[in-house]
């Protein structure tokens, strides 16, 4: 599977095999008229969005990391700058146009505040067609907290929220006791929701068990030692 993906999409990308396969399958099925990616980095996932979308808006603040193979992606419009500024401008433009957003990948700022702000700004879209939003790194505690902080009940276009659409990983890529990866999913529809909505955590128990064995938990538990650590590190 990995060799087949690499041969079709040669730009390296920081996702697990399950995430790569899921992203490819989703985009093959949706074939978005317009897609948005927040957080391009070297362009690994962007090459997949470009392959299956008619047009892609790629928002990123670090263009120096972009792989030179991205130059062949002719249907991509790069928007350089802070997503907090770029997303509202883009959404205003789209809401006032005939463009149909059908897919969004949020994988930019990984702080709790940053994730919340990206979700808040993206969910100002007024959907003309169903929209699938993928939230990368939903298994990371800071990212997950940001994903849960948004009040989905106040957005009538949100019909589904699942934080464990694809389960994340522990100790992935040699990151000792760290929790990363995972896909959260938000589904928007043009028709307004008539029932209440709850945030689903399909693998919530696995997340909690892993968290109490992770470096994230111990950092939070011993936060008061951080100033001492900085002194001895000098």
UniProtKB/TrEMBL annotation:
Gene3D superfamilies in UniProt? Vaccinia Virus protein VP39
Q: Name one Pfam family in it.
A: Methyltransf_24
Q: Which SUPFAM superfamilies match?
A: S-adenosyl-L-methionine-dependent methyltransferases (SSF53335)
One molecular function GO term is: methyltransferase activity
Asked if the keyword Isomerase belongs to this entry, the reply reads no
> Which InterPro entries does the record cross-reference, listed alphabetically?
SAM-dependent_MTases_sf (IPR029063)
Q: Which UniProt keywords apply?
A: Methyltransferase, Transferase
Q: Biological process (GO) annotations?
A: methylation
The entry's protein name is: Class I SAM-dependent methyltransferase
Organism source for this protein? Winogradskyella vincentii
- Higher taxonomy: Bacteria, Pseudomonadati, Bacteroidota, Flavobacteriia, Flavobacteriales
